[in-house]
Amino acid sequence: MKRTRPEQAMLSRDTDLSKTAETRAVIEAMVDGLNDHRIGDIGEFFDKAFTWSGNQGCGTKRGLREFQENWQKPFQAAFHDKVCIDEARVYMGEWAAAFGRQEATHGGTFMGIPPTGKRVEIRYMDFWKVVDGKIVDNWVMVDFPHVLAQLGTDVFGGEGWEAYDRGERAPPAP
């Protein structure tokens, strides 16, 4: 049975491939800025009206000020001695993507958990769109369940599918 298929990749379909080097330069400098824990002057890399769209637990930030106040500052308050390590980056015209991890010390309250002093790994994936030398959109997935597990909280209540991988539970029949 043939089904109607949804339109795919409409946001990146018409990207200007001649912009790849410019996009790469913006993203590489921005990651260095994040590793330098810059907040006040991070607008060098982001359009004032950019949108930062995160997964559940992260929220959506509209504009540079919301990003600074509602993401950067709370994140840096919760996690100290943070370093961002992109494990892979891909550039295509005005688009860039990366995945990696941040390594940090849990030094402030995070999701209601008081500081533990534990060193944690914070896994993420980012997609950016760069226009005229500034990031205008940033889609983000931060693996908060992994962070919370490192701090002793299982948000899946023992029902995570890792149990299938370990052979502790049989997958349901299709």
Summarize the structure.
Helices cover 24% and strands 34% of the residues. With 174 residues, the chain is α+β, with helices and mostly antiparallel strands.
Q: Would you give an account of this structure?
A:
The protein is 24% helix and 34% strand. It has 174 residues and is of the alpha+beta class. The protein has one domain (17-157): Nuclear Transport Factor 2, Chain: A (Roll), CATH 3.10.450.50. A six-stranded mixed beta sheet has the order 2-1-6-5-4-3. Strand 5 and strand 6 form a beta hairpin. The mean pLDDT is 94.
CATH topology: Nuclear Transport Factor 2, Chain: A
- By helix and strand content, what is the structural category? alpha+beta
Number of domains: 1
Low-confidence stretches: none
Give the CATH level 1 class: Alpha Beta
Overall strand count: 6
CATH architecture verdict? Roll
Q: What is the radius of gyration computed over CA atoms, rounded to a whole number of angstroms?
A: 19 Å
Query: Residue share in helices?
Result: 10-25%
Distance between the termini: 19 Å
Number of helices: 4
Shape: globular
Give the averaged pLDDT, no decimals: 94
Main sheet record: 6 strands, mixed
Strand order of the largest sheet: 2-1-6-5-4-3
The secondary-structure element order is HEEHEEEEHH
In what range is the share of β-strand residues? 25-35%
